[in-house]
Every structure is written in structure tokens, then in C-alpha cells.
Amino acid sequence: xxxxxxxxxxxxxxxxxxxxxxxxxxxxxxxxxxxxxxxxxxxxxxxxxxxxxxxxxxxxxxxxxxxxxxxxxxxxxxxxxxxxxxxxxxxxxxxxxxxxxxxxxxxxxxxxxxxxxxxxxxxxxxxxxxxxxxxxxxxxxxxxxxxxxxxxxxxxxxxxxxxxxxxxxxxxxxxxxxxxxxxxxxxxxxxxxxxxxxxxxxxxxxxxxxxxxxxxxxxxxxxxxxxxxxxxxxxxxxxxxxxxxxxxxxxxxxxxxxxxxxxxxxxxxxxxxxxxxxxxxxxxxxxxxxxxxxxxxxxxxxxxxxxxxxxxxxxxxxxxxxxxxxxxxxxxxxxxxxxxxxxxxxxxxxxxxxxxxxxxxxxxxxxxxxxxxxxxxxxxxxxxxxxxxxxxxxxxxxxxxxxxxxxxxxxxxxxxxxxxxxxxxxxxxxxxxxxx
Length: 436
Prior knowledge:
An 8-stranded mixed β-sheet has the order 3-2-1-4-5-6-7-8, sandwiched between helices. A 5-stranded parallel β-sheet has the order 10-9-11-12-13, with helices on one face. It folds into 3 domains: 3-208, NAD(P)-binding Rossmann-like Domain (Rossmann fold); 219-301, N-(1-d-carboxylethyl)-l-norvaline Dehydrogenase, domain 2, CATH 1.10.1040; 304-435, Rossmann fold. The protein is elongated. 38% of the residues lie in helices and 12% in strands. It is built from 15 helices and 13 strands. By secondary structure, the chain is of the alpha/beta class. It has helices at residues 3-12, 27-36, 48-55, 66-74, 109-118, 138-147, 188-199, 211-241, 246-253, 278-286, 293-303, 305-319, 347-357, 389-393, 409-415, and strands spanning 17-21, 40-44, 78-80, 91-94, 127-130, 159-162, 181-185, 205-208, 328-332, 361-365, 397-400, 419-421, 433-435.
């Protein structure tokens, strides 16, 4: 039996061991899915604290219950910081961060460092799948030579695929199983193995012709969203000057049954994907002498939104005879989107920094983030303020940045002196509500 046939049979019979490198918002749901359908899963992460929590059946992501982790542990899942355990696995799925550096250029050091750590433990029959969002060519240019360094041939001895993650934390309508999975292989055999790896756990597989096509697919998805959000954010500014409610306009436009997709404005882009991924293509396009004007323009518009919101806050305070300096401002919601605890690239944090830089006294309330977490670039020594009528009334202004369902919007409206609404929660005009 050839290596290809033996590998395919292992996945089909669920005898394969699934290794997942990176146990965050992408890796953890994938682990639960594979564990749930009967595979043994080994999770590898460099964070010893995360590993210890998982091995004691605890979760560090709010929307993933501890009972699910405990159930996976009972089914044989284990987490480790030891990369040599990769030798026990048949699949090595990489779910690691791909941020931007301070020059807004791709930082794929997590991908390269993970691959370098796995490299000494590669063996015949391994399938390596990269799920991290990156520029077209990463799998071919960075992973392929490292995979073949030890003498094994990709497409014959081991298999290399790219399959972008499509997780949407906190979305009740979709889960790992039901989100179609794009898979691209370095060779035809690689694609066959990639499909065999994922078809056991995901309902619908979408094969594409190459790893580059799969990498570009993920970027197009996120660029489409970033550009359309940039457009509606720009429309918001124009509509505001004209005295028009942009949310009313979007709601009316989306009644058209064809040719229009509703995107809503906000205080800026957040999350690991939409604010970051478009610039992976912008950077790579320069290699081909191309200038991605749509992407860069939408990035400018979206990055300017926190300043626009703070400008509206300053206007509101000014109308009340106050300056932002020494005013107490309560930011409602600091996660990047509603009903999650994910703080990555949250525009709320940028808004808080702008308020503080201008002399304001900033605090926050978020039912999903009880203590401001350690972040690579931002830090506030704050805990979530009590959400009470008395506390709301004690602030000079309340700035709605993330519209969690758990907020009582009637209570806010009744007791806040000034509301800066960046999410369009308050449609009826009121003297103390400013749309931002």
C-alpha cells in the first residue's frame, strides 16, 4: 500500500491522530470537533498556562464551556507544550496568529517558528495544514522548503495543504461543522489527503486548485468585508452632515432582494481578521508592482473611526459646557464585537487611549471582560465597572462602543447624562444622545 493510500485509510477509519498547534479561538473549536467525532487529538501550544487549564478541563474562552473541554479530555484529548509529540500525530494543523508589525507589514514569525519546531519531528505520512490567514505564496515559499529539509518529498512522503479558518466567535447560526471548508493542496495527492482530513469533521468541503488559490480566497472574503465597512463608515459621515440616519438608510436598502448586502457602520474595525488581513495582500502585491488602492483607502477610513467617535464625544461634552479633559467617560463594551470576550484589535481600546491622551478619565463596563486583559500593545489597569443606574449617572458621558445584548439600553437611556452611540442602538432622537 502506498503512503497516499495508507494515509487516506487512516483518516477514513478514524485511526489518525490529529495534532493541532495553537489552541486559541480557531484551534480549540477544531479540537472539540475532531474529538467529538471520534479522533484522538493532541493539542500543542507554547502557553503553559493554557495547556494546564485545558488538561484540568477548564476553558479560557467564554463561548466555549468548560464541560466541552472536560468531555474532550475524557475522550482522550491532551494538551502539551512539547513539540516532539508531533511525531505521534498523523495530521499537524497550524492555527497560530498572523498579526501585522508596527509598519503594517505581515508578521508570519508565529507560522515560521511553529513550522521550525515541528520540522525535526516530521515523518512519512504526515499531513501539514496551515489555517492561519496569510498572503498568497506563504505555504509554497515558507512551509514547503522547511517540510522537505529532512529529505521527505511533499506529495509522496508527506502532504502539504492550506485551509483557511472561518470561525465566527459568538455567532449562534454557525459552528465549525457547518461552515464550508476551503482546501488547497500543493499537489493533487496533497489535496486528496487534505479533503480526507477535513471531510470527516466538516459538512461541506470546497477544494481549490492550489494553496495560493486557498490563501487568496481567505483574503478576498475579509477584504470584501473591510472595503464594504469602509464604504458604509464613509457614508455615515456624509449622512450625519446631511442630518440623515445611516442606519435607517441601510435598513431600507437591504429590503432590495438582489444586488445589495447590508453592512453597518461602527467605531472602527476589530477582531483578528478584518483590520489585518487586507494588508497581507497589499504587502504582497507590491512584489508584483501593484498598488491596491481600494484596500488601502478602506483601511484609512476604518482606522479613522475611533477619532471620529471621540470627536463626537468632545462635541457632546462641549454642548454641555465641559471639556474632555478631566471629564469622566464610561466606555460600554470593549470586546471587538457583541456577545464575545475577544479583545483582539478592538476599536474600543483605541477609543480609550484617545480619551486618556486628551486628559479624559476613562473607565469601562463589559459583562464579557471582567478585567482588562494583558495585550501586546495596550494596557489599562482597569476592571469592569458595575452596571447600575447610580454608576451610569455618575459619569459625564457614556460611550457605547460594543452593543452587547446583556446591556439594558433602557436603563442607559434613562440614567446616562450624555450618550455617544456608535452602534445605532438608539433610533429615536433625544437631546442627550449623539449618534457617532
